[in-house]
Each structure stands twice: as C-alpha cells, then as structure tokens.
UniProtKB/TrEMBL annotation:
Does not bind lactose, and may not bind carbohydrates. It holds the Pfam family Gal-bind_lectin. Residues 1-88 are annotated as: Disordered. Residues 60-85 have a biased composition (Pro residues). PANTHER family: GALECTIN, GALECTIN-RELATED PROTEIN. It comes from the Eukaryota. This is Galectin like. Residues 9-26, 33-46 have a biased composition (Low complexity). Keywords: Lectin.
C-alpha cells in the first residue's frame, strides 16, 4: 500500500467516532459516556457538568470544619486548708505587736483628739483610773478643747471634772473651772478657786444631761474670754475666765462615780 494511502487510512481511523471515544479518557481524563448524568440511555434529564479543561488540577475539596472542643469540666473547689504553723506564728506575732502598740499609746497618753484626727493628745496620763490626774501639754489656750468620755455608775451620787494650775495640794493649786454633777438634785455646778478662795457658784442649766449607767461626752472649749461647755454635742453653758494666764492651766483632775473611757 502506498505510504500516502496508509497515512490517509490512519487519519480516517483516528477521526472516527469510535476512536474519539476510546481516546477521550486518555487525552482529557474524561469519564466514560455512561458515567455522565443525562447520557443517552441513562434515563436522567439533568445536563452533564461542563468538562474540566485539559491539564487543570482537580478542585481541592473544601476543608472540613473542626468539631468544637468540649468545655473543660469545672474544677473541684479547693478544700479549706488550715494555715500552716509558720503562718499562725506570724499572725500571732503581728497581733501581739498591734496590741502592745495600742497599750503603749494608752499608757503614754497618745490618743486621738476630740475631732478624731490621729494626732498626739494634749492630755498625758498613765491610766484611765478614777480618781484621775493628768497633765495638759502646754496648758490651755484659745481654741484648745478638752474631751472627757466615760460611763456614769449605776447608782451615782456625784462626780467632778476640774482644770487646775498644777497638782499642788498644800497650798492648793488654783482651779480655773470645776464642773460638778450632782445626781441627788440633778444639778451641774461650776466654780473657780483663786489663791485659796472659791468664787460664786453657778448652777443654771437648761436640763440635767447625765443618766445613771449611761455613757457621756463632755467637751470643754477654751475661748478668749470664757470656757464653753458641751455635753453630748449640746452646748449647756459658758463660764468666764477667773484666771488670766491660760497657759498656767495645765492639769485635769476627775473624781467621783464614773468610769473613764477616753480623754483627749
């Protein structure tokens, strides 16, 4: 057979439908005709998907969503453990230091003033024991206030609070003001003693402020011409100075049927 004829026969064979069908899987990587949906004889009316271009990589499958991780189980509450002995030792040591410091403050007379600010008190004393005698640092001056807080006894007769010029008993020290509460006739008296001579006693008050077995708060405010006296926050009366040198008034004395809780 001539070469040209053999080439023509080969071309015809290559272009025949059977040859195209057989070569399609190898050239295009296509499926066999029966695998397409809607191919003749398949019984399906759906159109076949468009062929994938030659040489293209197959589409990557969409990544699967990871399953949600389970929530951690709630941890069991930590059991209560008693403090270690070393911690108890440190705590007891700290508590003892605080108590000792407070006791020193009381014994040295370092208390808060009547306004509550943490400053060194003007009244110095060893202990709040009646009868009581304490020193007023620097003496009295205008603007200085003396605070006395305590509890009246259950069955009281009287008690007195005095501001004096020193502690002398013989000769007796001058008394700038003496406040005396008398429960038998409900009087709150005040007077002064200069050079051994007592002056005129004053007794006028709007009401008697003290009650047996109840707390009280007495404040003595020093002003230029007078002492102004408050009980439980209420002004009761004024007492004009009979001693001119206020700085000489440097001692407070308390006696009678009461228990002291605070001085300042």
């Amino acid at each position: 057979m001539p070469p040209a004829w053999r080439g023509g026969a080969a071309f015809a064979a290559a272009t025949s439908p059977a040859a195209a069908t057989a070569a399609a899987p190898a050239c295009l990587g296509a499926r066999e005709p029966a695998a397409f949906a809607g191919a003749p004889g398949s019984g399906s009316s759906a159109e076949p998907p468009p062929p994938r271009p030659a040489g293209s990589a197959p589409a990557a499958p969409s990544p699967a969503r990871p399953a949600p991780s389970p929530l951690p189980a709630p941890a069991d509450p930590a059991p209560h453990r008693p403090p270690a002995p070393s911690q108890l030792h440190r705590f007891n040591k700290m508590a003892g230091s605080v108590a000792k410091r407070d006791a020193l403050k009381i014994e040295d007379g370092h208390l808060n003033n009547s306004l509550g600010s943490p400053v060194q008190a003007d009244v110095y004393f060893p202990r709040l024991i009646v009868p009581f005698c304490g020193h007023i640092k620097g003496g009295m001056r205008p603007g200085k206030k003396i605070l006395v807080m305590g509890m009246v006894d259950l069955n009281p007769e009287s008690f007195d609070i005095s501001l004096t010029c020193g502690e002398s008993e013989d000769p007796p020290a001058d008394v700038a003001i003496e406040l005396k509460a008398v429960f038998t006739d409900k009087q709150f008296l005040r007077n002064a003693c200069v050079s051994g001579e007592w002056g005129e006693e004053q007794s006028s008050i709007p009401y008697f402020p003290f009650i047996p077995d109840q707390p009280f708060r007495v404040e003595i405010l020093c002003e230029h011409p007078r002492f102004r006296v408050f009980v439980d926050g209420h002004q009761l009366f004024d007492f004009y100075h009979r001693i001119e040198t206020l700085s000489a008034i440097d001692t407070i004395k308390i006696n009678g049927d009461l228990r002291l809780t605070k001085l300042g």
